[in-house]
């Protein structure tokens, strides 16, 4: 007796492929285009920013003169650094630079408010205030070296006697910082002029109708709209103060008696003059750590304010 045959089953069918829509293809093309546009910048950042930072941290644990084989010394460079009197002099000068550079954003804002007026000839005045920003640090250093010269400088003519500003350990750092504030204030002025052009004029007019003017207008209407610009001005000023180098190199070379040196110039001095690449890397890593702490703090504060 034959077993009953089961009913014929229909053949299994493969699931139909989901058609790719035109919008999906377009999004894929945009993603590929974005990748190829970003790839060169990412590679350059990796090669010229991230790799040097990591290699400098690595090198700070070695003793190396730049020619022979590096010798691993562990934390010896950092121990020597924290016992060197010049390090604390440079650190003190960096703090002084930092405090005095905090004057650049308020001064830049004051000049920007003055220049943000529709007055005949204001473009010429703007170009004069803008000029220090386009000058290189070497040129600014030479100009102020002549200005401070005790024999023929303009300062000696104004005071009626020669004052060796750059030759006196008490005044050298202040003289260099005063010279550096000139282009830094111009840079902050440009930032604030850009921010003033993006103000919400409806809010300004409404505040004027409510009777706001002068300090109340500036404090409650203009400054809140310039918050991001103010943040950027302070960040670039503080970073500029911590990485100051060119004016010191041109005007005093860290003297007299290393009284005007800062961490950036101290690192250069140890690497170029004394062939201490590992010790110089330790100085650079310390400076980078100081800058990184401040930048992270400011970024967290900005993100918290935006939330």
From TrEMBL:
It comes from the Bacteria. Residues 90-300 form the ABC transmembrane type-1 domain. Residues 1-19 have a biased composition (Low complexity). PROSITE patterns: ABC_TM1. One of its GO terms (cellular component) is plasma membrane. The chain crosses the membrane at residues 33-58, 95-115, 127-147, 171-199, 220-242, 278-297. InterPro entries: ABC_transporter_permease, MetI-like, MetI-like_sf. It holds the Pfam family BPD_transp_1. Belongs to the binding-protein-dependent transport system permease family. This is Sugar ABC transporter permease. It comes from Herbaspirillum aquaticum.
């Amino acid at each position: 007796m034959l077993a009953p045959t089961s009913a014929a089953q229909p053949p299994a069918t493969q699931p139909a492929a989901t058609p790719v829509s035109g919008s999906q293809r377009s999004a894929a093309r945009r993603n590929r285009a974005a990748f190829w546009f970003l790839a060169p910048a990412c590679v350059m950042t990796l090669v010229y920013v991230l790799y040097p930072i990591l290699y400098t941290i690595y090198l700070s644990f070695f003793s190396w003169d730049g020619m022979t084989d590096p010798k691993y010394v562990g934390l010896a460079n950092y121990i020597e650094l924290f016992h060197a009197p010049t390090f604390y002099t440079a650190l003190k000068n960096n703090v002084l630079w930092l405090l005095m550079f905090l004057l650049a954003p308020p001064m830049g804002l004051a000049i920007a408010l003055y220049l943000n007026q529709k007055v005949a000839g204001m473009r010429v005045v703007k170009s004069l205030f803008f000029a220090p920003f386009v000058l290189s640090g070497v040129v600014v250093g030479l100009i102020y070296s002549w200005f401070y010269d005790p024999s023929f400088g303009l300062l000696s003519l104004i005071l009626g006697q020669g004052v060796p500003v750059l030759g006196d350990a008490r005044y050298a750092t202040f003289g260099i910082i005063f010279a550096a504030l000139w282009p830094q204030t111009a840079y902050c002025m440009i930032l604030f002029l850009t921010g003033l052009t993006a103000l919400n004029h409806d809010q300004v007019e409404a505040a004027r109708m409510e009777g706001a003017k002068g300090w109340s207008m500036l404090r409650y209407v203009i400054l809140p709209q310039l918050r991001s610009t103010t943040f950027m001005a302070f960040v670039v000023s503080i970073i500029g103060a911590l990485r100051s180098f060119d004016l010191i190199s041109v005007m005093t070379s860290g003297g007299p008696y290393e009284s005007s040196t800062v961490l950036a110039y101290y690192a250069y001095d140890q690497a170029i003059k004394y062939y201490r690449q590992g010790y110089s890397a330790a100085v650079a890593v310390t400076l980078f750590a100081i800058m990184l702490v401040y930048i992270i703090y400011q970024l967290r504060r900005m993100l918290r304010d935006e939330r």
